[in-house]
Amino acid sequence: MSGRGRFITFEGTEGVGKSTQLQQAAATLRSAGIVVVVTREPGGTPMAEAIRELLLAPRAEAVNETTELLLMFAARAQHLHTLILPALAAGQWVLCDRFTDATFAYQGGGRGVSTDRIEQLETLVQGDMRPDHVILLDAPVEVGMARARKRGELDRFEQEAIAFFERIRAVYLDRASKSPAQYRVINAVQPLDSVTEQVTLLLREIISEAMTD
Ligand code: Z5A
User: Fold this and answer.
1) I want to staple 44 with a disulfide (CB 3.0 to 4.6 A). Which of 50, 78, 79, 140 is the partner?
2) Beta strand pairing status for 7-11 and 133-138?
3) Which domains does the chain have, with CATH numbers?
């Protein structure tokens, strides 16, 4: 397969299975001969990972919502320009655990930052660059929380109340319903094998589309 790479993001509330599915998806693409880069946000490069640590560490000091928003986009600018765009230009496919949809969901839905403000920063950092496909793993908040919390220590976001995550889920579903060609919503309550099977079917569709491009 030649030409431009594809940028595929995995989204959803905490614990829905993004990281698990992303690893499976990378294996599926590699077995089709595709060169895959697996990455995550916030993070993905040494500097962006340092910003991630700042963002996720629980702290006594209240974090201002604009500080949080700008740090998310600062990490994204570094990640996008030093890792994602060069990989896509080299024809590699990039699978990313969260991207700007998470900002609309968490900083927009969760913290109440306006959509306009997020869109301004999206344009500043990304121009018109958007994911080719967004795989939204959807499950009731309690289901993902129960899975994620088995891990123990909670980061700064995971310490939020359930209503925060309900707002986030609603934003994700709303964005997906408005752009059905870009988003695929997968019911993440199903057993792991069934979710993997659906993600694999979707990836096969994406691969065959890419081959006829
Ligand atoms: N954030 C933000 O606010 N704004 C932004 O712009 C961005 C991010 C980019 C870090 O994200 C935080 O940053 C995140 C939003 C914020 N905070 N929160 N919450 P993260 O992606 O690193 O953290 P996370 O969402 O908490 O990810 P996670 O907890 O690692 O969840 P996951 O990747 O979706 O799930 P998983 O690790 O694949 O699976 C969790 C467990 O469930 C694991 O034991 C699996 O084996 C199990 N699992 C997975 N699928 C299933 C099924 N189907 N059945 C049963 N068990 C399953």
Assistant:
1) 79
2) parallel
3) 7-212 (3.40.50.300)
Q: Which amino acid is residue 82, in one-letter code?
A: T
* Pair of tokens at residue 178: 């408005």
Q: Digits of tens for pLDDT over the chain (213 positions)?
A: 657 899 999 999 999 999 999 999 999 999 999 999 999 999 999 999 999 999 999 999 999 999 999 999 999 999 999 999 999 999 999 999 999 999 999 999 999 999 999 999 999 999 999 999 999 999 999 999 998 888 778 888 888 889 999 999 999 999 999 999 999 999 999 999 999 999 999 999 999 999 887
For atom 12 of ligand 1, which residue has the closest CA? 157
Select from 138, 135, 137, 139 the least CA-distant residue to 183: 135
Smallest CA-to-CA distance from 102 within 136, 151, 132, 141 is with: 136
Q: How far away, in angstroms, is 157 Cα from ligand 1 center?
A: 11
Pick the residue whose CA is nearest to atom 4 on ligand 1: 103
